[in-house]
Write a structure and sequence with these properties.
Blueprint: E1 5-11, H1 21-36, E2 45-49, H2 62-68, E3 76-78, H3 85-98, E4 104-111, H4 118-126, H5 141-156, H6 160-174, H7 188-193, E5 196-198, E6 201-202, E7 212-219, H8 221-224, E8 233-242, H9 257-270, E9 279-281, H10 287-296, H11 305-310, H12 327-331, H13 338-350, E10 364-371, E11 376-384
Parallel strand pairs: 2-3, 2-4, 9-10
Antiparallel strand pairs: 1-7, 1-8, 4-7, 5-6, 8-11, 10-11
Helix pairs in contact: 1-2, 6-10
The structure holds coenzyme A.
């Protein structure tokens, strides 16, 4: 296998975009390429994620991005894996470069849904669940994650204040992130007084509907090392896994089996132990999802991550910094841009550009990105070069 490095990464401010998805995708792509030291003509393939492009009446965004970059002849493909779309696209890019088929690839994820009302956006998102058994019967993602939260609370005694600690931490981290959707800290009182969305989840347990775009450039260092202008992030593992989509067919609702499997594969591939990891960007679409991620990935025994978070262990200056970017909860969750945006944060952290939320001298970082309620999952491990 060839080495694969992230050489450049960029994102826009998540929230409400004035521009179209294709324009945003093109802008962040150009920025990521310029930061890397490469030129657009060095890109051999573009992997695009845009799960809900049809909401803008636009599919097949790859050729539009490549044309805007001045490289219309470069091939492209759209990779869809619900909320884990752009980490799945990164995996495809990794496989191509590691296998020697490409020297440089662009990964770009984009979503624009802010022009839809709450019902329409919720209905679009619910298409990522099992339509026949879940969405058609009224299940939405807040409802499905509320089911997981209820099971976790029932088995482990997880308390609202412990889920609230995830929200308070991630809003605080996002207040230092100029790219975040929400940039104001919240108090525990604000969390506890926020209205229920789907019991036991409140407003501040949920990620928002966000527009946004994020791009990552991956290269084979043998070919491009002397061109690079940023501190690269070597991809030491790129692992994916799946599990039964519908919750009613699973044996246990206090875990996402795809996270466990993808995590085990990633650590095996990198040949390192969990103790090397200096920071994590995990999929916290709802506060309980951050708790599940930390337990499924093996950083805490089942039932212990929520308490550890409430005691400050997962703060930026804690013993295991989690979601310094603000996570999906507060940085925002433009579905197909999320996986790539996690890599942008890790790249910024490795380059020492995360003022206010900078983790001290990080060498290893993990990105964990879930599709829907865990029908698919990606885990990537990065090492600062
Ligand atoms: C929770 C939710 C229903 C709220 O949506 P909504 O009722 O349409 O909220 P609105 O857009 O009307 O916003 C009302 C206010 O709450 C704020 N807000 C909206 N969602 C928020 C969130 N998730 N967290 C914090 N604040 C939020 C808005 O900024 C707005 O504040 P303002 O009045 O100061 O401007 C929606 O954010 C949601 O469904 N989130 C989950 C999305 C999802 O399922 N993603 C897929 C995950 S797998």
């Amino acid at each position: 296998m060839e080495e694969v490095w992230v050489a450049g990464a960029a994102m826009n401010r998540f929230g409400k975009m004035a521009v179209s998805g294709r324009e945003a995708a093109s802008q962040v792509s150009l920025e990521a390429i310029e930061r890397s030291g490469l030129r657009p003509k060095d890109i051999g393939y573009t992997f695009v994620s845009n799960a809900f492009g049809v909401a803008e009446r636009q599919a097949h965004v790859g050729p539009l991005v490549n044309s805007a970059l001045g490289i219309p002849e470069v091939p492209s493909v759209t990779v869809e894996s619900a909320c884990s779309s752009s980490s799945a696209a990164l995996h495809e890019a990794f496989v191509h470069v590691a296998g020697g088929f490409l020297d440089a690839a662009l990964v770009v994820g984009v979503e624009k849904l802010s022009h839809l009302d709450t019902l329409a956006a919720t209905s679009y998102f619910a298409m990522g669940a099992d339509y026949a058994f879940e969405s058609r019967n009224g299940a939405t993602f807040p409802g499905l994650y509320a089911t997981l939260a209820t099971a976790h609370m029932h088995r482990y005694g997880t308390r609202a204040e412990e889920l609230g600690a995830v929200a308070v931490k991630n809003h605080l981290n996002a207040s230092h992130n100029p790219h975040a959707h929400f940039q104001k800290p919240i108090s525990m009182e604000t969390y506890l007084n926020s209205p229920p969305v789907s019991w036991p989840l409140r407003l501040y347990d949920c990620c928002p509907f966000s527009d946004g775009a994020a791009a990552v450039v991956v290269v084979n260092p043998k070919r491009f090392r002397s061109d690079l202008t940023e501190v690269p992030a070597a991809i030491r593992a790129s692992a994916r896994a799946g599990s039964i989509a519908a919750l009613q067919d699973r044996n246990d609702l206090t875990t996402l089996p795809a996270s466990t499997l993808a995590g085990e594969r990633a650590f095996r591939m990198a040949g390192v132990d969990r103790s090397v990891v200096d920071l994590l960007e995990v999929h916290d679409c709802f506060t309980v999802a951050e708790v599940l991620a930390l337990e499924d990935l093996g950083f805490y025994p089942p039932g212990e991550a929520a308490r550890a978070g409430a005691e400050g262990e997962t703060a930026v200056d804690g013993k295991l910094p989690v979601n310094p970017s603000g996570g999906l909860k507060a940085k925002g969750h433009p579905v197909s841009a999320t996986g790539a945006a996690q890599v942008v944060e890790i790249f910024e952290q490795f380059n020492g550009r995360a003022a206010g939320r900078q983790v001290s001298d990080p060498e290893w970082a993990l990105a964990h990105n879930v599709g829907a309620t865990g029908g698919s999952c990606s885990v990537h491990l990065f090492q600062r070069v």
